[in-house]
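#help-structures
NK: newbie question, is this the right format to request a structure? protein is FAD-binding dehydrogenase
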Amino acid sequence: MALDADVIVIGAGLAGLVATAELADAGRKVILLDQEPRASLGGQAHWSFGGLFLVDSPEQRRMRIRDSHQLAWQDWLGTAGFDRAEDHWPRRWAEAYVDFAAGEKRNWLRAQGIRFFPVVGWAERGGLLASGPGNSVPRFHITWGTGPGVVEPFARRVSAAAARGRVELRFRHRVTGLSASAGVTDTVSGEVLAPSNVPRGRASSREVTGSFELRAQAVIVASGGIGGNHDLVRKAWPARLGTPPERMLSGVPAHVDGLMLEIAGEAGGHLINGDRMWHYTEGIRNWNPIWPSHGIRILPGPSSLWLDARGRRLPVPLFPGFDTLGTLEHIMTTGHDHTWFVLTQKIIEKEFALSGSEQNPDLTGRSIKDVLGRARSGAPGPVEAFKRNGADFVVAPTLPELVRGMNAKTDQPLIDEAELRREIEARDREMANPFSKDLQVTAIHGARRYLGDRLTRTAAPHRLLDPGAGPLIAVRLNILTRKSLGGLETDLLARVLRADGSPLEGVYAAGEAAGFGGGGVHGYRSLEGTFLGGCLFSGRIAGRAAARATA
């Protein structure tokens, strides 16, 4: 039976685009399949903030950050917590990825036309010991153009290859099966869905209008994870994180449904680390949603007071921006699935950023003028819009009014005004000195020693109850689904492995479907800026390896 292509790539997100571009450049004929319409080319990466993890970059050195490969690897190991036999390949992928991030990655991306915002962000600060989780130094490099800026060069390469006849793009093709001939997986079958003109991210029709069957020498699975399928998220939820939340927001569109992972598993691929996942604890309901239960993550500076549902401060070191997984673990012990930020107008103006390309039009639109406008007084436009319209925001001139507003947001009045006042006043008394026994206050002073934070991300220390800093603001925070950290086990050539460790001949995997490499390159936790980077790295490896195998 004749082949339809050299390689079939399943999934037109970032990893699939990178793999396809590499295959086409190597002279291979590729069919790229995706169940969504053309408008969704680039997948989840389009919606991202565009942060990329780099080590000892020129941007870091200009900000007086001293980083090194050894420090980054120490941070990765302390964060990942590899502790399973199945972590053999994830750990090897992690070593290779840190080598890439400290070596070729930046120059390779610049060759694609990607540039970076000059201020390096400091995500996932950890807050424990040197050998524990978190980034010891800022490493979050924001792409000029955010997520669309990351997708753009690879989409351009794929489009150019399509014009040359090297790539065939088939949207509205939903894969339902993989099958083999003579021990090699070479056939992809599925359903053709009805044409759809819905905008990017909107739920598209699942009406089936036909079927397809295609054959190639190799298949690359780059179909993403499970974050849009809350049933699968709850099914995979680990006992160590307690009972799954009754209510979650979605940080990804509904088509991130995880169905292709099951199909690849049925074909013989080994799925590992499915209980490892990366969900955010600072989710807010989007007042102008694109997909169902659409949530946006607040990227906070260090100054907001973080309270549980009953108004008690979260334990050390669970401060804003420090330890996502540790915070999630704690929240699930409280008996409630929401928490609160309490802050001031001064804090929201300096410290609140919103994740997502659409929430950062200045960076996404590459407007230097608009970026400089962030230095003006007042909160950034998208943040101010959430403050005015967001269902999770309470704004009040006094603490009694704030507490009444907070209690109106929940089924029962859980916040006691007197207790909250004691908590805030105790914290405020610590603000009179540049030193403190309150470790969050110490962290605020420490953050302002980093030039990037002082300029853009950390408000000048002040009392929360200072009338001159007001009004007071409370934000109800929700669990926001986002990434699967496990997936198809792969070797360093991105070949999908069987349960016995042998390759599933003809099948490769990249991106979130492969746990961003190996079946879980992050272990239990992410250092941030490593999801897009994992798609880039694993997509490049899968494309190049499949090209060599089909020569």
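mod (FA): yep, format's fine, and the tokens are attached above. The chain has 18 helices and 20 strands.
NK: thank you!
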